[in-house]
Amino acid sequence: MFLHRQRSQSPHGSLQRRGATFVEFALVIPLFFLMTFAIVDFGYLFFMKLSLENAVRQAGRFAVTGNHLTTTSTNGIVTTESRIQSITQTAQTAALGFPITVNISSVQDGVTNTASAGGPGSFVIVQVTTDYTFFTHFIGNYFPNGQYIFTVSTSFRNEDFPAGETN
Asked: What is the model's pTM?
């Protein structure tokens, strides 16, 4: 019969390995969290940009029709909003709750009219602006005031709708 002897390990060897593992973990974990939060930050940033591009596209497509939105109050009174209010409401609805600023202007015969959606055949410009404050402070240090400012715009040519629908 063979007797197997177990090697006895020095308690110092296992403690040294545990200490080295702890030091390696302490060096790597901050980088791991930084990368994780940076991925979340940039993922949200790109999601916000795509959402705003969709919002400005939806508002522009609504603007060219010359249509108006109507709202019904709790007591049943129907109110027709102006075109500017209707376009702004369309952009805010499509922006998924992001706090946005909407600017609408039109161009007719080379003349730019601010706060006007224009008439039939003119060009309407819808611009949406918002900012994003970074969650990861380290990433935010590379941007002015820790914020990234989005400005998304589009321009469409208005369809031929009745001229009385311009407001």
From this structure: 0.78
